[in-house]
């Protein structure tokens, strides 16, 4: 998905470069305390990990294998700010040393693959964690859903950038259809891989998973008289999920919806391609998008502009959250047993994701 | 790594991506090269579509730099393979773009798509070759020093330097884990092997994270106070920087000449 030189015109390339530089600056400031404590080696090695793991062939079913983009994975493992820094550094190295992605398209590539995937992946993961059971294993479906949403969102943003600064007149609805359809497939692979990798980390070192830090269980000490003392684990980030998880989830959804609608309203025909996206998001058949009800609804029923864009954005968010909740429900049911049973046998519970490998 | 070591001239050895020969391009200051190639590619991107004479002139300029740097054509060609996915995309463009159609071998193709696809191919190829020249003539350490000199935030340069230093270590870890996994029958060909491959990637993260913690503790033990020592790049003279500026200035001249000719014809 690395964009080469000349794919977008010079003003768009420069503008995305400015956006990328601004977000990296912000990430540096937000991650400053963390980097001061852990040193620059830790994010550097995490970037090396992302770089290495992008080259791994993951079998994702039907005889195909997929590569990881790693945005949602990095967001789940090391948090959004460090994740953005790691992905940006990886893209910088790929562009400067490996000629993968153009020099002038570096800002575009960082904006799409370094920032969008991390931010969207993180927001979706956190939103789902707010409604899933409060245990470390909830991170697995949450991170998978984050990865699933992050890749088509980046593709959508790419289509938007192409609409602004594309160099060849391709009909936008067809470009969007092709891009989103293809990247929904890639997103499914990304989701499977991300969920599997996060599951493997949670099984052995749940404390290393950034988004699961607040889910660690209290340590209960029993003395000789049978009195229990509870020792809470360190909670480095004050990221407690709040008293109203649904409200937190909706708030996050609104943030995403706002971003999508802003982007959609930037184009007169914005809803048309957001609508075709929704067709993809809602239906299992990739080819059904052209005749999706949303596409017609958008073109015929509503005028263009911010309102229709916002509606499309909110509907898009609801569809994606719905998919995420469905995935979560399936995973929860498959996990078996009420959360209390799992809590009483923590060791076996932690081993669960590794079981297929041991077979 | 870094710096240029005198070596054979016919087929230079390589150290990673760097070719180990001594050429005027190798000797130029890294930050000058980085800025020059970036400016060159920016000029290329800003050229109107379908400006074939201008693209040809850019290609001649870039080929001169490749020759001056003593890079073997086979090495450049091999590294250009990274561009393949977008070559495919460029060939698809004439079929999907809109506008007037032209008949080519009995197939109706979009004229705008043909021009656009050709333009995309030309610009992307020029950009890829420019990046290859940079990586093949500049050691990673010099590149880091150049980025620091270009006022990239020091923390970012530090992260970048650790990534480059440990990329081979982490890849080696991954390689050993792959050998261990495959020797146990999990060759990763089928979907059932996903859990094994993912467990490898997961434990690679845990190993890498723990290695990062150990590296930081080792740095603290050796007196790290929160500031990385500055990467002193080699000093650059005004003449060297002027040499770097030749390529983008020539490209600008080409584009100005092309636009003047095109305006004169119109």
Blueprint of the fold:
The complex is a heterodimer of chains A (359) and B (266).
Chain A lengths: L9 H21 L1 H7 L2 H13 L4 E4 L2 E3 L4 H8 L1 H18 L8 H26 L7 H27 L6 H33 L14 E4 L5 E4 L13 H21 L4 H13 L10 H9 L4 H30 L3 H6 L1 H6 L3 H4 L1
Helix pairs in contact in A: 1-5, 1-6, 3-5, 4-5, 4-6, 4-7, 4-8, 5-6, 6-7, 6-9, 7-8, 7-12, 8-10, 9-12, 10-11, 10-12
Chain B lengths: L13 E2 L2 E2 L4 H4 L2 H16 L6 H17 L4 H7 L4 H13 L4 E4 L2 E4 H27 L2 H10 L4 H30 L10 H28 L16 H28 L1
Antiparallel strand pairs in B: 1-2, 3-4
Helix pairs in contact in B: 2-6, 2-7, 2-10, 3-6, 3-10, 5-6, 7-8, 8-9
Relevant terms:
A: 359 residues; mainly alpha; two-stranded antiparallel ribbon; 15 helices; 4% strand; disordered C terminus; B: 266 residues; two-stranded antiparallel sheet; 68% helix; disordered N terminus
